[in-house]
Amino acid sequence: MGWFSRKKKPEHNKDTSVDIKKEAWKKCPQCGEIIWMKNLIDSEYTCPSCGYHFRLTFKEKIVLFTDQDSFTELFENIGCVDPLNFKDVQPYKKRIQRTQQKTGRKSAFVAGVAKITGIDVAIGFLNFEFMGGSLGSAEGEKISLLIEHAIENHLPLIIVSSSGGARMQESILSLMQMAKTSGMLGELGKTGLPYISVLLDPTTGGVSASFAMLGDINIAEPNALIGFAGPRVIQQTIKQDLPDGFQKSEFLVEHGMVDLIIKRKGFKEKLGKILDYLNGN
Ligand SMILES: [Zn+2]
Fold this sequence. Notes:
Elements: E1 11-12, E2 25-27, E3 34-36, H1 37-42, H2 58-65, E4 72-74, H3 92-103, E5 109-116, E6 119-126, H4 137-153, E7 157-163, H5 171-191, E8 195-204, H6 205-208, E9 217-220, E10 226-227, H7 231-238, H8 249-254, E11 260-261, H9 267-278
Helix pairs in contact: 4-5
The protein binds zinc ion.
Residues 28, 30-31, 33, 47, 49-50, 52 line the site of zinc ion.
């Protein structure tokens, strides 16, 4: 890795407020309850009547998972490229451009440093709102740089994933990011610094098959879909009925794939406790 010269002095990120003006009401997809946006925010984006965890945008994650105004973005100038000149129903270049305009982000992965209950961490978010949180070359590069940053600065690493998997428009270059990020996590492991992987709904495909499942501790949100291939594909392949709750957080904890489930309410405080514990306190 020879990217040290690209490192730039972090700028303070002020863009962390939750936008409540867009929608005043939201319907719970699980129980159908119509929830006033203010109540939804007060309950940290969980349904007050059934506990359903709404999917979070990047801005909401920053507010809920890190200490106020503590997040500073790193490597923000690394964005998606189109190395294969790929076209499906529309050219990949156009798809990148549109998504970048819509999200105001250059790639699906946002890396940075922050504090969690006062503890300094290297933290990254793979965001579903950017092309389904898919893993391409830019995302893999930023994840690797973040791991390197954690090693150099002796910081615990946290990656919060929500992703459909490797990005097909970059073909094998996307798949190579699985090996690259896993290799870098191996380097982190040698230092004894902890890596906590947080799995949000959904975390699937090449992301679940690489860095998202390699945490020293893998933490999931309640009822998140986590797996490699989708249930329908598996069912058609093995021609057997799948058990209830298959590929959901609770099922995965029971079967040893995920270490624990943490509800969103109080998530940050619990994460802080785990970091404290890993630090020998
Ligand atoms: Zn509900």
